[in-house]
UniProtKB/TrEMBL annotation:
<keyword id="KW-0460">Magnesium</keyword>
<dbReference type="GO" id="GO:0005743">
    <property type="term" value="C:mitochondrial inner membrane"/>
</dbReference>
<dbReference type="GO" id="GO:0032049">
    <property type="term" value="P:cardiolipin biosynthetic process"/>
</dbReference>
<comment type="pathway">
    <text>Phospholipid metabolism; CDP-diacylglycerol biosynthesis; CDP-diacylglycerol from sn-glycerol 3-phosphate: step 3/3.</text>
</comment>
<keyword id="KW-0496">Mitochondrion</keyword>
<keyword id="KW-0999">Mitochondrion inner membrane</keyword>
<comment type="pathway">
    <text>Lipid metabolism.</text>
</comment>
<keyword id="KW-0808">Transferase</keyword>
<dbReference type="GO" id="GO:0004605">
    <property type="term" value="F:phosphatidate cytidylyltransferase activity"/>
</dbReference>
<dbReference type="InterPro" id="IPR015222">
    <property type="entry name" value="Tam41"/>
</dbReference>
<comment type="similarity">
    <text>Belongs to the TAM41 family.</text>
</comment>
<keyword id="KW-0594">Phospholipid biosynthesis</keyword>
<keyword id="KW-0548">Nucleotidyltransferase</keyword>
<keyword id="KW-0472">Membrane</keyword>
<keyword id="KW-1208">Phospholipid metabolism</keyword>
<protein>
    <recommendedName>
        <fullName>Phosphatidate cytidylyltransferase, mitochondrial</fullName>
        <ecNumber>2.7.7.41</ecNumber>
    </recommendedName>
</protein>
<dbReference type="GO" id="GO:0016024">
    <property type="term" value="P:CDP-diacylglycerol biosynthetic process"/>
</dbReference>
Length: 373
């Protein structure tokens, strides 16, 4: 099968990469074309290959790419590389996608993001968009010696572990952890206004009641807009179950080195410190944007407490997990909507086919990192 050939050798990925300008600080492939998934699309032949290119200078890179691959772009190409870079950097989640491209006999979608924007997202979770993809197994095709980027990639994984542990009970399985991590960039929210549901603090209910109905999904739904417009609810399970070994390879060392985690590797079980002191330590290491969103959720009008005071309160709250989950959701949903809306302008010559566009802009696998050899 073509998918197996792609997975077993980096040659196919490097052949595709050769069609693009070389100035990349990072290039990775993700999705069902790279890592097998369960579910209804498990045996899909020739699935679309998803790629992300990280570049130091988006204007210069797009200028070169326009010369090599003019047909990949939408009407925005007529406005030049500076406008394309402006759309990339200033709208959505800071990434510019060219979808539904035939390259070296393979259907691909590729996104371009600046190195600085990616580093900021990895460290602070401003959008949790590309950072979310990098919390799942991906194939690294090319990576520079940028030590700041490499450190940020590692910090993103550690933040994913901490956030997931805050949303889990004191004892849980490896698979439970990986499902929580894989779901972060889909952001599951357990809120059901008007009917019996998980208890939430009054502060959270207050914010939830002000939010738009779409973000408060019935029972347990995915708040990622891409999920809403086309993704099956079991997507996270379909990503994790066939790839537990890849997740273990990605997170094993981090779990072993985490002083607040007891990792029983042979049993596939973990324990986490759920004392208020332990949870406060974990909350204080969360990415800055997530801390700020939690503060906004919990801070009553007029109080203007600092983040540390709020996190101390959350650490002692029995609903700490729900507060953290709602905080993640408040990052993911707006950035997903903005990024998907941007696709209206960047979808290129295939824009007229809405079905194809929707298919393109759902997260097809989000599939550490496995480096292509």
């Amino acid at each position: 099968m073509a998918v197996q050939a792609l997975q077993s050798s980096g040659v196919g990925l490097r052949r595709i990469l050769a069609h693009f300008p070389e100035d990349l600080s990072l290039a990775f492939a993700y999705g069902s074309a790279v890592y097998r998934q369960a579910g209804p699309n498990a045996h899909q032949e020739n699935p679309m290959l998803d790629l992300v290119f990280t570049v130091d200078d988006p204007v210069a890179w797009h200028a070169k790419n326009l010369q090599k691959n003019w047909s990949h772009y939408s009407f925005l190409k007529l406005l030049g590389p500076r406008i394309i870079s402006s759309v990339q950097n200033n709208y959505g989640a800071g990434v510019y996608f060219n979808p539904l491209i035939m390259c070296d006999g393979k259907l691909i979608k590729y996104g371009v993001i600046s190195t600085g924007t990616l580093i900021d997202d990895l460290l602070n979770w401003n959008n949790l968009y590309i950072a979310g993809r990098l919390q799942k197994p991906v194939k690294i095709v090319s990576m520079s010696e940028n030590v700041v980027l490499r450190s940020a990639l590692d910090k993103n994984l550690k933040s994913a572990v901490t956030t997931a542990c805050l949303m889990l009970p004191e004892s849980f399985s490896e698979e439970d952890l990986f499902i929580e991590i894989a779901g972060l960039s889909y952001s599951v929210v357990s809120v059901n206004l008007g009917k019996a549901s998980l208890p939430l603090p009054q502060e959270v209910k207050r914010v939830a009641e002000r939010a738009e109905p779409l973000s408060l999904t019935l029972a347990i739904e995915h708040s990622d807009f891409r999920m809403v417009i086309g993704e099956e609810k079991a997507k996270v399970l379909n990503i994790v179950k066939p790839n537990v070994a890849h997740f273990r390879e990605l997170y094993g060392n981090i779990l072993q080195e985490n002083p607040q985690v007891v990792y029983k590797m042979q049993q596939g079980r973990l324990e986490i410190d759920k004392s208020p002191e332990g949870q406060f330590t974990q909350l204080m290491t969360l990415p800055r944007t997530l801390q700020q969103h939690i503060n906004h959720i919990m801070d009553p009008p007029g109080r203007n407490r600092d983040v540390e005071e709020t996190l101390l309160q959350v650490a002692q709250d029995p609903d700490c997990a729900d507060v953290v989950r709602l905080g993640v959701s408040s990052i993911v949903r707006p950035s997903s909507i903005r990024q998907s809306t941007k696709g209206l302008f960047t979808a290129g010559k295939n824009f007229g086919n809405r079905r194809l566009w929707y298919t393109c802009y759902v997260p097809t696998g989000q599939s550490g990192f496995s480096v292509v050899g």
